[in-house]
Design goal:
Elements: H1 7-20, E1 25-31, E2 47-53, E3 74-81, E4 85-92, E5 97-104, E6 130-134, H2 139-144, H3 157-179, H4 183-209, H5 222-227, H6 236-257, H7 265-277
Length: 278
């Protein structure tokens, strides 16, 4: 565990000094809860920073993570590549988690002083971001002037229905695999079914709160308890039970999310029962 006393502030300061020494780095921006005056960071909070670089060195800190060695031993890494950005997410051995987004300078246009609402720069910045330092003119004012982006977009009935078609086909395949004693694939597919149910519950939570950002949990956890009771042993019967529980939960959640959805569990349950007795 990291030192409980302001480890995030120390990491931000070290990162800021490191990048400020590189003349190809144009700005260092703090994002996330640490950037907000009302932010409530605790020992589990991560550090979110955005670094603007000249375009030809965009990969300098992304391809290799050796430059992070002074911060600690890396436990795990996640990387993403986009045309104008690179994302590097790391967890250090002390459970210090750092999310770094490297942004090409060409994505930050020098004019106008305020980006229009349709500008692609809205993808990269949030008005609550805090510019720690910058070599770009008026960057702080331009970021602060951005409109607050929409953080919730309703999932349509058509999207839920598309998920339903894929779910029930996979449930049928999983049942066939288990009855043929292919527990490796059967259990893999059964876990996919449970994961889809969790996604539906997350959609319900987003719809209820009208946001996709949830700093703490609690609401909706009963679905986890329903899908994963204690003492699962991975046997044929347990896998089939997971498939059936996933189907039951999916039917219940999908009905609450889509007015056009009709339950399908009754179509598959006889086959699951036959698989139990095979």
């Amino acid at each position: 565990m990291p030192d409980r006393l302001n480890w995030q502030n120390r990491v931000v300061a070290r990162l800021s000094r490191l990048f400020e020494k590189d003349p190809d780095v144009q700005a260092f921006v703090l994002s996330g809860s640490l950037a907000k005056p009302e932010g409530h960071a605790d020992v589990w909070s991560d550090v979110d920073v955005k670094i603007i670089l000249v375009d030809h060195v965009l990969d300098r800190y992304h391809q290799s993570t050796e430059w992070l060695a002074p911060f600690g031993q890396i436990l795990g890494v996640e990387k993403h590549v986009h045309p104008l950005t690179r994302t590097l997410r790391v967890c250090l051995d002390s459970f210090q988690r750092i999310d770094l987004t490297f942004i090409a300078a060409s994505a930050v246009r020098p004019a106008p002083a305020v980006w229009p609402a349709s500008s692609p720069e809205l993808i990269h910045f949030h008005p609550s971001d805090r510019v720690v330092w910058s070599r770009l003119p008026e960057l702080e004012a331009r970021v602060a002037a951005l409109p607050v982006p929409v953080v919730y977009q309703e999932v349509s009935d058509a999207e839920i229905d598309g998920m339903a078609d894929a779910f029930w086909f996979k449930a049928a395949v999983a049942t066939a695999k288990v009855v043929r004693n292919d527990l490796l694939i059967g259990f893999h597919l059964a876990l996919d079914l449970a994961r889809t149910c969790l996604v539906l519950q997350m959609i319900r939570r987003d719809r209820r709160a009208q946001t996709t950002i949830h700093r703490t949990g609690g609401w909706g956890n009963e679905v986890v308890e329903c899908l994963f009771p204690l003492h699962e042993d991975g046997s044929t019967q347990e896998i089939l039970s997971l498939i059936q529980r996933s189907c039951e939960v999916f039917d219940e959640l999908a009905q609450q999310l889509s007015s056009s959805y009709s339950p399908r569990g009754h179509l598959l349950f006889p086959s699951i029962e036959a698989a139990r007795n095979a």
